[in-house]
Amino acid sequence: MATMTRTENLKRGDYCLLALFCLVLFGEAMFSGRGLSIHESVLPQSAREMYADGDWVIPKRGGAPWLESPPLPQWVTVAIASLFGRCDSIAVVRLGPTLVATAVVLMVAWMGTRFFGRGIGLLSGFVMATTCQFLRYAWLAEDEIYLCGLVTLAVTLFVRLEFSDAPEQAEIRESDGFFGARRPAVLAFFIALGMTNLAKGLIFGTAMAVIPAGAYLIWNADLSRIKRYLWLWGWLAFAVVMLAWPVAAYLRFPDVLDVWWFDLGGRLDGSYQASAEPWWYYPVNLLWMLAPWTLVIPVGMWATRDAALRTRYSPERFLWCWALLVPAVYSLAKGKHHHYMLHAIAPWSILASVGLIKVRETMLAWPKSMHNPFWSLGTTAAPIMIVIWLLRERVPGGSGVYWPVLVACPFLIVLLSWAIMHFSARRAASTLFLTLAVAYTFGHFVASRYVDTHRVDTQFLTAVRQQVPTEEKILVDLNVEALRGFMLLFYLDDNSIPLHNLSFARDKRIDDPAVFVLTRTSKRPEQDELSTTDVVMQSPHTGREVTAADRLTLFRLTYGAGARSVSGAGVRISPMQAMYRAEGPVLR
Fold this sequence. Notes:
This protein has helices at about 10-30, 40-55, 70-85, 90-115, 120-130, 130-140, 145-160, 165-175, 185-195, 205-220, 225, 230-250, 255-270, 280-290, 295-305, 305-310, 315-330, 345-365, 375-390, 405, 410-420, 425-450, 455-465, 485-490, 525-530, 575-580, and strands at about 60, 65, 475, 495-500, 515-520, 530-540, 550-560. The chain is mostly helical. It has a five-stranded mixed sheet. A two-stranded antiparallel ribbon has the order 1-2. A hairpin with a 2-residue loop joins strand 1 and strand 2.
């Protein structure tokens, strides 16, 4: 790595170029017309309800508490919505992820520069922005990208402390002991570490930042550096920021502990079967998650091996701790999901950038007879593509849709080879990343029009909103599916009335003689108990349907005499019931 020592920082123009690239690429999802999926609708709808009721502590779905995750993503979404005066627009709810993802890319570029200089730093930012898994979540209005931003912020502050221009001076200032003073950057690190508990699940994000930082400190075995973090006031600041929301939520809903134990404990011991995966899940899935840079990462690992294994305090050692130990530690838990590794893509992006530089240096040293870009396809990429093809059916986690991206990697190598042989480093990189941006944009457009499995659902819900007059009420059965309820509510107007289940249609506070009911076709008999129902319209296809009985259907329900004999006022829906992890309540 002697040729990649830090020589120059990123310039203001570099940051502007990266930011512009990201805002255009990530911002495409704001205006592409691609609708929300059932998972993606959770954050927008819970933020929409927070925007409407002003309760900044408890996220809700249909008025019931939804306490699976802390509410920082909702806070950001509501803050942005306040600028536009609305929270029911896809462009508005996807603006936050676009901005956060852009900030992540800039932080990765800064770290790459701190480690290896301006060239690799700038390259690291572009690689991060075009990595398959990261780009996917930069397009989605989900809380995952917010946690990625917080984890990256905490790690960036740690890098700022550990790879300072004058570490020996910092050590002198920070040697005052457990109760002594520290510079502001140390306090900022502890605060950022606490903030990792304000998005997604508790403890989860904190571990993502602590694993690489702790492993790096322990591997170097330097007590003087470890003492920097043995600081009472820092850990108190961490605890206050970390515990503020969980304590506030517990005071409102003491049984929220059941939800947190179900999520955390269930994923650790495998009792939450929906996420149970084999130990080798992450190593195999990282192949497509890191596409299209999968093939150059081994080159970067090889180039950094000596410094990582033998040199204390080296950036290579820290990158190895971050890239390898996070998936290794999380593989110990029974519960796994590919999006868990979103927060550890950054080190792989920097290693891929090192690999790209080494590939360029190697290819330029080839004899002229080998200066044919298809040589690289035959000698390196083609055999790897064969292995990828053989593995395609063995990868768990529903990642099959991303295998085309991975299989395209060898053709990316051909493009890279051609650019290297014909252009300067700057023009080669420009050709490569602009081509990738165009390809991703085209793929996103095609998916939104023809491939997206949720497009029929969103078209149906849009048609329902247009057909039902605003003065008429729509009873929305949230029990069609826990997360799908968010999607139904987001696409409907304010005349929708959420029902925890269809038994709440008996509520005597619903005083209209006839109402619309949105639920699955299979639930018509439950409505017939109240009187007569008629089918108004039905979705031609509903995501995850097994039979036609699973399709979303809009009914017209006419109440019979005495059908509404009970009141739902004061009925409490617990956090576990709100997520349909516990039965009830039922109005009778």
